[in-house]
């Protein structure tokens, strides 16, 4: 089930006694926890919430077994509940925990986990009595509704073409991007703070979203060099959609590979990152990141990649071959 199913349970007063929240969208988890607190309990005394890195099973079990004082139900929230899915939590303990929730109408327990391995015994055992709620990334239509809601709440309006531009060019819809709803919200706050007439147009959105596009360029070329084929193709699709010219993208790959070779040469002279950064007129954190990349690539493969990239650059400049095709071929060649 998804977060909308849990929210429906809340609205209908049809709550189960045990839920497991998992998935990457922490913003929606936090929102649903807030809704649950508002709906279920009338006083703090009926809330047990632990954020300990290593929550105590016996304490949690005891909290589940207690009756509510000022509400119809007690609400138990366990952050960092990975313990329940580890080898330390025996099947006997899981069975006991499930039994405490069986036909128990006086408690709602929510376990929060980063991810779930459905092949393991813990999932198979808990799923007999718990409802698993997957907090996935929002779909495009859901993201659109989220953006409109946040902008409206701030007292602004957004033009349709500006909204479409934001959705199409945001990193959020890239499955493995680091951008989540918290970052989307912050971006929207920056955009609204820069508008004086309460109407957000496409040009204003582009000032901020294009920074994400530029960031995608760096993530894309790193994925290419490391042979992360899936990520490389995902970012390439976004960049082409954002109308980034292929000739610029191949230049960025060549630049990274050239920098890596120069750093490799200077490291052989036993120079540290700061000294290398000074010689290359770069920044320490950039050099350190490139050194981390170098550790994952054998020197002979680095030289081979540089040759492939230069050949792709020549092919693109000669014309006659679509630039996108050249980039796609390069990604495949490097991943071999």
| Number of E strands | 7
Indicate the percent of residues in helices: 55-70%
CATH class of the largest domain: Alpha Beta
CATH topology grouping of the largest domain: Rossmann fold
Strands of the largest sheet, in order across it? Answer: 2-3-4-1-5
Q: Alpha-carbon distance between the termini?
A: 38 Å
CATH superfamily of the largest domain: P-loop containing nucleotide triphosphate hydrolases
Biggest sheet descriptor: 5 strands, parallel
User: What CATH architecture label of the largest domain applies?
Assistant: 3-Layer(aba) Sandwich
Global outline: globular
Mean pLDDT: 88
The helix-strand sequence is HEHEHEHEHEHEHHEHHHHHHH
Weakly predicted, low-confidence segments: none
Molecular structure report:
The chain has three domains: 3-134, Rossmann fold; 145-211, Helicase, Ruva Protein, domain 3; 245-335, Zinc Finger, Delta Prime, domain 3, CATH 1.20.272.10. The mean pLDDT is 88. It has helices at residues 3-11, 26-40, 57-65, 91-101, 121-126, 140-153, 160-169, 181-193, 202-225, 229-241, 246-267, 273-280, 284-294, 299-318, 323-335; strands at 18-22, 47-50, 74-78, 107-112, 131-134, 157-158, 199-200. Helix 14 runs antiparallel to helix 15. The chain is α/β, with parallel strands linked by helices and 336 residues long. The strands form two sheets. The protein has a five-stranded parallel β-sheet, with helices on both faces. It contains 15 helices and seven strands. Helices cover 59% and strands 8% of the residues.
């Amino acid at each position: 089930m998804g977060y909308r199913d849990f929210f429906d349970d809340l609205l209908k007063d049809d709550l189960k006694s045990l839920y497991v929240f998992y998935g990457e969208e922490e913003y929606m988890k936090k929102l649903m926890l807030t809704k649950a607190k508002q709906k279920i309990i009338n006083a703090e005394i009926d809330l047990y919430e632990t954020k300990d890195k290593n929550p105590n099973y016996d304490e949690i079990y005891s909290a589940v077994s207690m009756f509510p004082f000022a509400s119809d139900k007690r609400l138990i929230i366990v952050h960092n509940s990975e313990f329940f899915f580890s080898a330390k939590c025996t099947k006997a303990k899981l069975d006991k925990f499930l039994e405490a929730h069986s036909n128990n109408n006086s408690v709602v327990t929510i376990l929060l986990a980063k991810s779930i391995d459905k092949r393991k015994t813990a999932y198979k055992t808990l799923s007999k009595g718990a409802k698993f709620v997957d907090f996935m990334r929002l779909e495009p239509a859901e993201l659109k509704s989220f953006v409109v809601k946040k902008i409206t709440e701030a007292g602004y309006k957004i033009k349709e073409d500006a909204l479409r531009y934001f959705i199409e060019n945001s990193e959020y819809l890239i499955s493995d991007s680091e951008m989540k709803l918290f970052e989307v919200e912050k971006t929207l706050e920056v955009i609204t703070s820069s508008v004086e007439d309460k109407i957000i147009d496409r040009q204003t959105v582009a000032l901020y979203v294009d920074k994400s596009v530029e960031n995608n360029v760096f993530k894309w070329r790193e994925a290419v060099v490391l042979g992360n084929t899936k990520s490389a193709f995902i970012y390439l699709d976004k960049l082409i959609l954002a109308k980034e010219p292929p000739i610029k993208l191949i230049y960025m790959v060549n630049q990274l590979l050239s920098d890596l070779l120069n750093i490799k040469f200077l490291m052989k002279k036993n120079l540290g990152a700061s000294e290398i950064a000074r010689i290359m007129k770069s920044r320490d954190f950039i050099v350190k990141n490139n050194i981390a990349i170098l550790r994952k690539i054998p020197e002979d493969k680095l030289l081979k990649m540089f040759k492939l990239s230069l050949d792709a650059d020549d092919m693109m400049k000669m014309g006659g071959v679509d630039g996108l095709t050249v980039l796609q071929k390069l990604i495949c060649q490097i991943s071999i």
